[in-house]
């Protein structure tokens, strides 16, 4: 059974989360990568391979921001001394195959592990595959 300290929100982890989330909200790959360890693993569980290393993550995030027009809606956040779990919705703006713009949402879940230095050593992102597939199909994007 986990200790109460592992369940309750911790101020240091909360502050780190806020800095990290700001990087995503402002679409700043340098800020995001700076909060990861050199040997970080960033894995979106959508069938893609994990991104390994801070430099690779920087490139990956820059590519995401160039390729997709999306924002985030916050959900529940659970923090412990060396982790956070964050429920959120990705809000994506697309143009459908019929030429009509549309907005789609996709439920997401981040599981983030921190090292003793307070760096993100692993981020696993779980995607609602049905919502993602429906949005991408409507936009004519193959997964």
Automatic annotation (TrEMBL):
Signal peptide (from-to): none
Domain SnoaL-like: 18-122
InterPro entries assigned: NTF2-like_dom_sf, SnoaL-like
Record-linked SUPFAM superfamilies: NTF2-like (SSF54427)
Annotated protein name in UniProt: DUF4440 domain-containing protein
Organism from which the protein derives: Pyruvatibacter mobilis
């Amino acid at each position: 059974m986990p200790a109460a300290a592992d369940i309750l929100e911790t101020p240091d982890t909360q502050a780190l989360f806020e800095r990290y989330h700001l990087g995503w909200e402002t679409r700043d790959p340098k800020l995001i990568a700076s909060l990861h360890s050199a040997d970080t693993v960033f894995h979106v569980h959508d069938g893609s391979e994990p991104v390994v290393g801070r430099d690779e993550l920087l490139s990956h995030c820059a590519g995401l921001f160039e390729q997709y027009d999306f924002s985030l809606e916050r959900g529940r956040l659970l923090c412990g001394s060396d982790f956070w779990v964050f429920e959120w919705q990705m809000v994506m703006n697309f143009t459908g195959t019929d030429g009509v713009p549309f907005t789609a949402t996709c439920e997401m879940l981040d599981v983030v592990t921190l090292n003793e230095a307070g760096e993100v050593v692993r981020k696993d992102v779980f995607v609602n595959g049905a919502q993602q597939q429906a949005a991408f199909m409507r936009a004519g994007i193959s997964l």
